[in-house]
Amino acid sequence: MKHWIQAARLRTLPLSVSGIIVGSMYALANPTDNVLTPTEVFNWRLFGFAILTTLGLQILSNFANDYGDGMKGTDNEDRVGPKRAIQSGVISPQAMKRAIIITSLLTLLSAILLIYYAFADTNIWYSLFFLALGLLSIVSAIRYTVGNTAYGYRGYGDIFVFVFFGLVSTLGVNFLYSKQFDFVLLLPASAIGLLSVGVLNLNNMRDEASDRKSNKNTIVVKIGAAKAKKYHYFLVITAMVLVVVFALISHFHFDQYLFLLAYIPLTKHLINVYKNQFPKALDPELKKLALSTFALSILLALCMIFFFSDLLVNNS
């Protein structure tokens, strides 16, 4: 059990649910058709299965990454980060493959239940669309490093993370509640996507030397360490700006800028990356950035709940 928990990479899980939290709380703070009661807006079963589905996708991606890199020999003695399960031999490739299949099925089941609680027996086209999106998410999580045409080995991992853990996570769950698309939500959704890419970029910066030897052509391998740092600054700073713009457009009150507290660890993180000279020293920054993103999502959610409370007071 200890080795399976390590293979699931718990430090990545808070990051994966950040979009679900923001998308759900936005639905609560911006009810459609002037419906203002929490029970009419917020569905705990929908929220729960959205969290379970996202966690399933993240764990599936981690298992598949361990399997794909392990079978390709990318995880070897040259790797800077912590040893992976297949690399160290504590989990066999056959057992990991079974885990990938089981996790895929459980994630699909969770996604189906999520879709059912969102649409029931109405909106069949929405149901089919989200089912196809769920299947695509599962396939994409596996194909990141598994197979001869794994897109993570061609530098497309950043796109996958931005789309699925930023846009799809945040906008998708909000649509399940509201049944409509709100363009302003693109701002925090993109911010979470960019910060999620930042975590992947840190991982790739740490593993640049071993990835280069293994022909894993991540963006960091393609552009080099110096430009990868600039790319990282762009990801984090742009995300911070997008959330502030979202707050301004949404007419947040002064006390709703509580989310700015999360900018303190984010700024410290950027300083640490700027000063860094040794790839191995970047490993702790992965956890820091992931938890800072999670903290930002929680604080932003609280700010939106404050806004919802104001609506209740003003309409009572």
Automatic annotation (TrEMBL):
State where the protein is found. Answer: Cell membrane; Membrane
Q: Which reaction does it catalyse?
A: an all-trans-polyprenyl diphosphate + 1,4-dihydroxy-2-naphthoate + H(+) = a 2-demethylmenaquinol + CO2 + diphosphate
Where are its TM segments located? 12-29, 41-63, 99-118, 124-144, 156-177, 183-203, 231-250, 286-308
Q: What is its main location?
A: membrane
Q: According to its record, how does it sit in the membrane? A: Multi-pass membrane protein
UniProt GO MF annotations: 1,4-dihydroxy-2-naphthoate polyprenyltransferase activity
Q: Which family does it belong to?
A: Belongs to the MenA family. Type 1 subfamily.
Q: What does this protein do?
A: Conversion of 1,4-dihydroxy-2-naphthoate (DHNA) to demethylmenaquinone (DMK).
* Protein's name in the database: 1,4-dihydroxy-2-naphthoate octaprenyltransferase
Tell me the lineage of the source organism: Bacteria, Pseudomonadati, Bacteroidota, Flavobacteriia, Flavobacteriales
What gene does the UniProt entry assign to this protein? menA
